[in-house]
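New here. Invent one.

***
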Amino acid sequence: MRAQFRADFPLTKITIGTRYRHELGDLDALCASIQERGLLVPITVTTAGVLVFGARRLAATQKLGHTTINAWVVDGISDQLGILLAMKDDVELHLALKPTEQAHLYEELRELSRAAARRRQEASRFGAADSRGKIGRADSAAPVEHGTSRRQAAHAVTGTAGYDRLEKILDVQRLADTGNEWLARQASAALVQIDATGKVNPSFLHIKTLEMKTDLTTISQNPTHPEKTRNQARRDLEKLEQIDHPQDAHRFARDALSRAKKTLSTDTPPSAALPERTSRLPESSGWDDIPAPIRTKHAAQSFLASCETMAAVWAEYAPPEVADAFTENDWHRFEEFSHYVSDFTTRMTGQKQTHTPRIRHARN
């Protein structure tokens, strides 16, 4: 990475991207220091003028009414992940981030790290073009290691590889953004509490218990569900109200909801659990003039290719490692997906019993 010092970098040419520190703190002391001794530590910007670190120094300089600033201009930080990592160093040295701000930075670093890993995977999967301009496929490619991305992102933000705390904050943030109105308000209040106390687990357990309690309430009030399941959900809700310890309440709610969903997946006919799907080919997709049997054959082969791709992806993961990294929300999403696959497999098996397989004849 090369850097060039400039003593007169125009403030108007500096772009401040997504920042993770929303409060810059008291700038009076820094302003007084700059007035007395000048800016001793230059800010750092990219060649495009994007601020890498030095947000407090930049803000103080602007507050003093200056039009230029001392800056290091670096040309080795072109990747967004590199910029965020540099921003992290500045924040860590000057002003601690709030837990929710740490989580936001961690989330972006995690996704950027995964994207970088996917780019490396693609680069190792394909070789150089041959004399005909075709790209040759490599023998193998390293899988995208999501656990590694989480550990790397957590270490960059907090200095430790533990990411469970940050994932819990993001889970609460998800409910604040996408939950029902009442649950969203509760989650938003929990985020404020996390920032105020620095403690994550109590608020996380409380909100996740409320989420599962909401799901149980929905099950107990749904007239389309079996009466046995609705009554059991009501009894579980009554017991849940009597549990005071947050961890015990969370564990009970999790088990009760899992039991209710398992009962529903067993008692609900596959046709009701999985809605009928229409053809995925839109009418205006350019297939209007293609005979229906050919379109159907294409859709079937496309579906099989998707299954084979998924099988290849799953083969790259070790269940113990994945399970160890799962949060409560991850398990919920995985179980829903598993039920979906199970229902679809059951329906496909039923179709196999009623349809005569097509026999492909070899061409002469």
Summary: Strands lie at 3-10, 43-46, 51-53, 68-74, 126-129, 135-137.
